[in-house]
Each structure stands twice: as C-alpha cells, then as structure tokens.
C-alpha cells in the first residue's frame, strides 16, 4: 500500500489567506515566480512583463546598487517576498534597507525579509492601480519610510516619505534632483531614468561624495559598534 503525498491547494487570484498559508501554498508551486498577499487577498502577477518594465527596473537596481556599495550597513535587492504581518506578503520590485545590526528596522524570517525595509520602489505599469492603491496604503500602514513609484508610461517618478503616519511627496530640489530623507546621499535625476543621453550614475555619485553621506556612514558605523 502506498500513501500519496498531500499537497496544499494551489494559489488562486482573489484567495483570502493569512501569510502563513499563503507562503505554504506558494512554496509548493516552484513554477510560480510572482505573487503577493495584500491585506489578506492573493494577487497573481501572471501578465508578461514588457521591455519598458525590465529596462527601468534594471536602471533603478543599478542606481540603488551604486549607493549600497558606497554605504556599509545598507543592503538592497529585487523581487523578494517580505513578511509584513499576518495578512501581508508583498513582492516589491526593489528595496533598500539598513541592516538590523546597523540600526535598521527590518529583519529576516527564514528565507524572507520581515518587517518594513526603509525604502521600496515599485515599477508601476501593469500593476498601477494596485501599487498606487491598496499596496501604497499597506506600505504606509506597515512603516515603509519612503515609497518610490516609477511610472514608465507617464515617464514620472513620485517619491514619498512617511510623516506622522501618512505619505507626503518629496519634491525635486532647484537642481531638479530628488533626494532621500532616510538615506543621505541617495540622489536621483528623474530625467536620467528616461533619457538615454544621460547617466543615472551622475547624481548618486555626487550624492555619495557629499558631506551628508559621509556623516551618515559614520552614524551607521557608530550604531554597529554600540550593539
């Protein structure tokens, strides 16, 4: 007599689950690469990703990597699942965080990130309504300190900071650059994301050469030594 292995039910768009059950079902589906749980509702990202999404995602990833590489105590990544409570497990396009041993607010739960990384970037093309609706509200509620929405079709970038529990937009400076409030020296020229004649490296390299970035690196180091 043989006993068949009982597999969990498949994930389906619109299922209502908690985080534990969502991850249990997804881990049994190795061919499914993109799925999220937002406020207890499952979203399956089954639409093919276009060239614009891939290109912009790579540009943003390179920009964050340049900053991370110059800032000991910070870490970045893409398309990883984050456990943000009993009903939320989003899969953001990009994140930047301060490592917990350097005073950061997020941690790790087995294979996944846990809590809220300080900064999240979403490339909002096929998922615009979700990224600017329920997901924005969830990131706000769970304490993601900065949320950057990149809209390829509109060639627009909206950078928000969390202030008194609500997001407010960070406006460009007089030089046209966007500047993080959480990560000093993380500067972005929005036009360089769309204009192939410009380099996304220029603004961030200028930012990491600034006195405020040097002071931030010293603060991170001091936080690490004190633990």
What does this molecule look like?
The protein has a single domain (51-225), classed as tt1808, chain A, CATH 3.90.1570.10. The longest helix is centred in the first third of the chain and has 19 residues, at 51-69. It has 7 helices and 13 strands. With 227 residues, the chain is α+β, with helices and mostly antiparallel strands. The N and C termini lie far apart (57 Å). It is globular and about 60 Å long. The strands form 4 sheets. Strands 3-5-8-9-10-11 form a 6-stranded mixed beta sheet. Strands 4-7-6 form a 3-stranded mixed beta sheet, with no helix packed on it. A two-stranded antiparallel sheet has the order 1-2.
Name its key features.
single chain, alpha+beta, 7 helices, 24% strand, three-stranded mixed β-sheet, 227 residues, 30% helix
User: Level of helix content?
Assistant: 25-40%
Strand order of the largest sheet: 3-5-8-9-10-11
Give the N-terminus to C-terminus distance in angstroms: 57 Å
Q: Which band does the percent of strand residues land in?
A: 15-25%
* CATH homologous superfamily classification: tt1808, chain A
How do the helices and strands follow one another from N- to C-terminus?
Answer: HEEHEEEEEEHHEEEEEHHH
What would CATH call the class? Alpha Beta
Helix/strand structural class: alpha+beta
Provide the number of structural domains.
1
Overall mean pLDDT score?
93
Query: What is the CA-based Rg, rounded?
Result: 19 Å
What is the CATH-assigned architecture? Alpha-Beta Complex
Low-confidence stretches: none
């Amino acid at each position: 007599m043989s006993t068949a292995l009982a597999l969990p039910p498949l994930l389906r768009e619109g299922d209502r689950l908690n985080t534990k059950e969502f991850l249990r079902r997804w881990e049994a589906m190795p061919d499914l690469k993109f799925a999220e749980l937002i406020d207890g509702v499952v979203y399956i990202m089954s639409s093919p990703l276009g060239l614009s999404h891939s290109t912009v995602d790579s540009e943003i990833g390179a920009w964050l990597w340049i900053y991370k590489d110059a800032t000991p105590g910070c870490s970045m990544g893409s398309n990883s699942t984050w456990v943000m409570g009993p009903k939320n497990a989003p899969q953001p396009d990009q994140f930047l965080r301060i490592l917990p041993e350097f005073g950061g607010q997020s941690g790790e739960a087995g294979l996944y990130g846990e809590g809220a990384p300080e900064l999240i970037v979403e490339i909002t093309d096929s998922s615009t309504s979700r990224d600017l609706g329920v997901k924005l509200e969830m990131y706000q509620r769970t304490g993601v300190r900065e949320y950057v929405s990149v809209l390829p079709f509109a060639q627009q970038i909206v950078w928000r900071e969390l202030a008194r529990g609500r997001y407010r937009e960070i406006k460009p400076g007089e030089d046209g650059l966007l500047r993080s409030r959480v990560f000093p020296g993380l500067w972005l020229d929005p036009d360089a994301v769309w204009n192939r004649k410009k380099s996304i490296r220029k603004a961030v390299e200028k930012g990491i050469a600034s006195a405020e970035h040097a002071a931030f690196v010293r603060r991170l180091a001091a936080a690490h030594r004190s633990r």
